[in-house]
Design goal:
- Helices cover 23% and strands 21% of the residues.
- The longest helix is centred in the N-terminal third of the chain and has 16 residues, at 10-25.
- The protein has helices at residues 10-25, 31-39, 92-97, 127-136, and strands at residues 6-8, 41-43, 59-64, 70-75, 86-88, 105-109, 115-125.
- It contains four helices and seven strands.
- The chain has a five-stranded mixed sheet with strand order 5-4-3-7-6.
- By secondary structure, it is α/β, with parallel strands linked by helices.
Length: 176
C-alpha cells in the first residue's frame, strides 16, 4: 500500500498520465518518478483544492537542500517563458513540487543516485484559488478579455468589422 502525500487536480492528473505514456515509449529515466507520483497522489476536484497546494501554473517558492529560496511557475514547458521564470513539469524538481502542500518537503532521488531535499515554502499564486475567489465574490475569473466588434452576423466569411470601443472615449470621426 502506498501513502498519499500529493494532491492533484484532474487536469494535473491528465497531464502526468499523458507524460507517463509518452516517456514510457522512450524508456525515459523519469518514468519511475512519474509512476511513484501517480501512486502517491489523491485527485481533488479543481474547485476544492486547497490554496496552498502546488498545481499546474502555480507560482511556488521552494528551497533545494539548504539553498536560497527560488520562485518559479510550474509549467508544461518554458520555451516561451523568460529565463528563470518557469519550472517545467518534465524536470525532476517541477515534477516533485506538483501536488505538494506549502511547508511539505520530500527527498527526491535522481537517476545518478544523488538525493536532494525539496521544501515547498509557499504557493504565492494558484489559478484554482484565484478562480474560486472570483466565483465566491460573484465575479468572472480574471483572464483574457474579449474584444468584440459590430454584429458578427453581417460580416462576410473571413471578413472583419471595425473594433468598437464601449468606454465612450473615442473622439469619433468629427475630431479627425
Amino acid at each position: 500500500m502506498t501513502r498519499t502525500i500529493y494532491r492533484l487536480t484532474p487536469k494535473d492528473l491528465a497531464v502526468l498520465e499523458a507524460m507517463l505514456m509518452r516517456r514510457r515509449a522512450f524508456a525515459d529515466v523519469i518514468v519511475p518518478m512519474l509512476e511513484r507520483k501517480l501512486a502517491e497522489s489523491n485527485v481533488v476536484p479543481a474547485g476544492m483544492v486547497e490554496p496552498d497546494i502546488a498545481t499546474l501554473n502555480s507560482r511556488v517558492v521552494f528551497r533545494i537542500n539548504d539553498g536560497a529560496p527560488e520562485a518559479r511557475t510550474l509549467m508544461l514547458g518554458d520555451a516561451s517563458a523568460p529565463v528563470g521564470f518557469g519550472l517545467p513539469l518534465g524536470t525532476w524538481r517541477g515534477l516533485c513540487l506538483l501536488g505538494m502542500r506549502a511547508g511539505q518537503s520530500v527527498v527526491a532521488e535522481r537517476p545518478d543516485g544523488s538525493r536532494e531535499r525539496i521544501l515547498l515554502e509557499d504557493v504565492a499564486y494558484q489559478p484554482e484559488a484565484e478562480h474560486q475567489a472570483a466565483r465566491t465574490a460573484g465575479q468572472r475569473p480574471r483572464g483574457p478579455r474579449l474584444v468584440y466588434s459590430a454584429a458578427g452576423d453581417r460580416w462576410p466569411l473571413g471578413g472583419g468589422g471595425k473594433i468598437r470601443q464601449t468606454e465612450g472615449d473615442d473622439p469619433g470621426p468629427s475630431a479627425a
